[in-house]
């Protein structure tokens, strides 16, 4: 039995079904001092509460699920308490134009209160901050699947502050004082020296954003004499976005032909690329064709040629070396992958995230790396994945 099966469903917000959280410029610009875990916690709490920010004063989420979503040990309530305390002690400050064009300044703690009771985390925002968080005009979409890839709070802070400018292509010029505040190092004399700021904050943060997210950022500097006084970031889409596991089993990964491709040894990225380029029906026809050729030394290479040159089967009603009977082992593997895909897709986003974290806790080394790249379609972990899902839903495999 999965440990999340007993989560009270009325403690989970329907907005957790989303894959991204909208963050207001005020919330983004004031959270520079938050640790990486606090920043992630802030985003998940906002996602959980978003649908009822104005209509509901108090929000709730299962504490164990919250820990798993953020990356805490699910039993480490002390760390969760410390992070919640940090959010309640952090002041949000906004300085912006209201709907009538009048300047508005305000402050609020990020959380007005939080408490843990009976395995449930209960929390609230101040009415003023909730109103700002609910304003749709100046939000950036923070993808929680991308957020989980960050290992540095400075990098995640840079990502949040740059992503909302992706359509304009540039953040515009920021003073170094503002930038240091956004990164949470405004109180450090060490980072008053640009050489230190560049080496320890800017370069590492840029490198991680470009490696781990769906955007590419490039810093540019403005000088007064020999001194750097302002910074801005050029922003573009990351061409590596296709390899990021952003849909958690949605989209192309739901396709039956996707499971068949992975059963042949095709990588996650290549499988999605072929389906996108050629369409499901065409790819399925070529997979059927390759399956009909018997034992092929390089099935992936042969399939690639079949897709490119539109190989077609010879008409024959007989089983022959060119048109053999289906491979039972391959058919069973495809069936198993299909069951696992459907089981994972049937879980709520919260449960899917927890399932992955529970399974990841059992892996090390190359097995862990392969699962992080390919998820439940990881060929290297096929046996362990099947055992994991059989334990959760044994009846699903008895069809």
From TrEMBL:
<feature type="domain" description="Initiator Rep protein WH1">
    <location>
        <begin position="21"/>
        <end position="162"/>
    </location>
</feature>
<protein>
    <submittedName>
        <fullName>Replication initiation protein</fullName>
    </submittedName>
</protein>
<dbReference type="Pfam" id="PF21205">
    <property type="entry name" value="Rep3_C"/>
</dbReference>
<dbReference type="InterPro" id="IPR000525">
    <property type="entry name" value="Initiator_Rep_WH1"/>
</dbReference>
<keyword id="KW-0614">Plasmid</keyword>
<dbReference type="Pfam" id="PF01051">
    <property type="entry name" value="Rep3_N"/>
</dbReference>
<dbReference type="InterPro" id="IPR036390">
    <property type="entry name" value="WH_DNA-bd_sf"/>
</dbReference>
<dbReference type="InterPro" id="IPR036388">
    <property type="entry name" value="WH-like_DNA-bd_sf"/>
</dbReference>
<comment type="similarity">
    <text>Belongs to the initiator RepB protein family.</text>
</comment>
